[in-house]
Amino acid sequence: xxPKISIVTPSFNQAPFLERTIRSVLDQGYENLExxxxxxxxxxxxxxxxxxxxxxxxxxxxxxxxxxPDAINKGLRRATGDWLAWQNSDDVYYPGTxxxxxxxxAEHPHVNLITGNMAAIDPEGRRLRVQRYVRPTYGAVxxxxxxxxxxxxxxxxxxxxSIGYVNESLTCAFDYEWFLRVTERFEAWHVPEIWGGxxxxxATKTVQMAQRFAEEIALVRSERPFPRWKIPLxxxxxxxxxxxxxxxxYVMAGVANRIRDALHDGTRMRGCK
Length: 273
Known about the structure:
Elements: E1 5-11, H1 15-26, E2 33-39, H2 46-52, E3 59-62, H3 68-78, E4 83-86, E5 92-93, H4 97-107, E6 113-121, E7 127-131, H5 138-144, E8 153-156, H6 159-163, H7 174-185, E9 188-199, H8 205-208, H9 210-222, H10 231-244, H11 248-271
Parallel strand pairs: 1-2, 1-4, 2-3, 6-9
Antiparallel strand pairs: 4-8, 5-9, 6-7, 6-8
Helix pairs in contact: 1-2, 5-7, 5-10
């Protein structure tokens, strides 16, 4: 029997995308799955969608909550799987993700966090770009920020016994703070496959609350002092690991984008004089 995987979906008024999220979990065809949906009292038709799939859910509830971190924690505390994750109600998993995770977990029994790559997708699910990562460590996450993403990350349930749950005092940067705590205590592994899709559109929290994101990330970092001189070393580490993974074309594209942005900024500054 493959390891039990528990997925938690926090949901609130995202009916246009919710069914695609649910199907991306259920259509994995994974035989040892526990799926939990925690809805915050949606009034846009989301409840009808959840009820449609209720026979395939281990648990679901729709009630007022204190926001996304609270909903995630409600689900994680109820989860009984060997491996846990949350997937937002407008994002998706790509086919084969759970089987790939199970294979990686069997090959690397000493790790407690396993990550994959992520694709940014538009409202219709069309791929906009791919974000490729490497094996995360605490230093790398502290130095470079979100070099991993919840859309493509799974961790052992036992992690919660050591470090607790998502920080509910944060509205936006709770995922960054969570992965800092995980990587600070536990070893991770990375699988260079696209596991998750992050949907990009104007109404997302990332777009609507950009300033709040920046403020909370700054707060989280201020509580964890880090030598600035180490930052370029971790960037070099990421490039080196990318090359080892055979991502030379991706690395060169990133370098070209940086050069183009620098030239554009320089041209714009000269034009302002």
